[in-house]
């Protein structure tokens, strides 16, 4: 089975006509596919639409947080500094 068949078999569709682009990487407002094409991402998710893909400051913050802890419990049980830090 190829990538497109696997995608269509295992992923819930969000539209009747999925683009079926195989993403190699994303940077800024663009998605780059495995066939070497560049697309302006008009379907960006919640954070990518405002920050762009792989924003260096966001990547750095995620790397630093993951080195400390990623997820310890649902919010409301433990104080997790990044969620309450007002310096952000």
In short:
This protein has 88 residues and is of the alpha+beta class.
Features:
alpha+beta, extended, PyrdxlP-dep_Trfase_small
Explained architecture:
- This is Aminotransferase class III.
- Pfam families: Aminotran_3.
- This protein has helices at 3-10, 48-51, 56-68, 81-84; strands at 23-27, 30-33, 38-40.
- It is α+β, with helices and mostly antiparallel strands and 88 residues long.
- It has one domain (18-83).
- A 3-stranded antiparallel beta sheet has the order 1-2-3, with no helix packed on it.
- The longest helix has 13 residues, at 56-68.
- The mean pLDDT is 85.
Strand content: 5-15%
Instruction: Tell me about the largest β-sheet.
Output: 3 strands, antiparallel
Note the overall shape: extended
Number of helices, counting only DSSP H or I runs of 4 residues or more: 4
Radius of gyration using CA atoms only: 17 Å
Secondary-structure element order, as H and E?
Answer: HEEEHHH
The strand order across the widest sheet is 1-2-3
**Number of separate structural domains:** 1
Calculate the terminal CA-CA distance, rounded to whole Å.
46 Å
Low-confidence stretches: none
Query: Which structural class do you get from the secondary structure elements?
Result: alpha+beta
- Could you estimate the helical fraction of the residues in percent? 25-40%
| Average pLDDT reading | 85
> Would you count the extended β strands for me?
3
Q: How is the topology of this model organized?
A:
Layout: H1 3-10, E1 23-27, E2 30-33, E3 38-40, H2 48-51, H3 56-68, H4 81-84
Antiparallel strand pairs: 1-2, 2-3
Pfam family, one: Aminotran_3
Cofactor: pyridoxal 5'-phosphate
Keywords: Aminotransferase, Transferase
């Amino acid at each position: 089975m190829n990538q497109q068949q696997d995608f269509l078999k295992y992923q819930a569709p969000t539209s009747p006509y999925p683009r079926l682009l195989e993403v190699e990487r994303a940077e800024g407002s663009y998605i780059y596919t495995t066939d070497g094409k560049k697309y302006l991402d008009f379907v960006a998710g919640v954070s990518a639409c405002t920050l762009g893909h792989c924003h260096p400051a966001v990547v750095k913050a995620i790397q630093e947080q993951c080195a400390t802890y990623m997820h310890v419990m649902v919010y409301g049980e433990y104080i997790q500094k990044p969620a309450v830090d007002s310096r952000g």
